[in-house]
Amino acid sequence: MNKLSEADKYYIAGFLDGDGCINAQIVKRPDCRLQFQIRVYISFYQKTKHHWFLLWLQKKCQYGAIRKRNDGMSEYTITGIDPVHNILKELEPMIRIKKTQLKLVLRIIKELPKTKDPQTFITLCESVDRFEQLNYSKKRKIRSDTVRSTLAN
Questions:
Q1: Long-range contacts of 142-146, Cβ-Cβ distance < 8 Å, separation of 24 or more
Q2: Whole-angstrom Cα distance, residue 41 to residue 48?
Q3: Residue boundaries of the structural domains of the chain
Q4: How crowded is the C-beta side of 39, counted as CA atoms within 13 Å?
Q5: Average pLDDT along the chain
Q6: What is the Cα–Cα distance from 9 to 15, expressed in whole angstroms?
Q7: Less packed terminus of the chain by CB within 10 Å, N or C?
Q8: Contacts of 49 (CB under 8 A, 6+ apart)
Q9: Active-site residue set
Q10: What does the buried/exposed string (b/e) look like for 22-59 if buried means 16 or more CB atoms within 10 Å of the residue's CB?
Q11: Predicted TM-score of the model (pTM)
């Protein structure tokens, strides 16, 4: 991201604000000590006829994967603490609409290393629950209450 021009940063930030998503979710991970993991990611969406644009964007950002969906859309997703942190820190001054999501993901990333005990992890999962309203999520299946009840057993 350091090699991006200021114009590219503003353009990508505007695209993320308009046709992108900054998100965190709780995913089941039986191989993890607490049985769940918090995943952070950034996604960009574009009609598949403009798939070339997502390829350009991926080349600029140097992270993530692109897929063509069955609904005529293509999706470019960047997942992982370091890639998401690096991109959001570069774009932070330019983001307007999704500023709340950006700040929340950066706070979650900062707190993740401190989640060694179940209660601290559940508290962080409650922060992840906020994305349901911020991003109008309809498909969330795992929330902090799911984690709480699983860890209580």
A1: 142/25, 142/26, 142/27, 142/28, 142/36, 143/26, 144/26, 146/26
A2: 21
A3: 6-152
A4: 16
A5: 93
A6: 10
A7: C
A8: none
A9: 18-19
A10: bbbbbeeeeeeebebebbbbbbbbbeeeebeebeebbe
A11: 0.91
The whole-angstrom separation of Cα 16 and Cα 97 is 9
Domain covering 6-152: architecture? Roll (3.10)
Amino acid making up residue 6: E
Number of residues in the chain: 153
What are the contacts of 63-72 at 24+ separation with CB within 8 A?
63/87, 72/47, 72/48
Taking the C-alpha atoms of residue 19 and residue 21, their distance in angstroms, rounded to an integer, is: 7
CA nearest to 148, candidates 118, 128, 124: 118
Q: Please give the structure tokens belonging to residue 132.
A: 């349901």
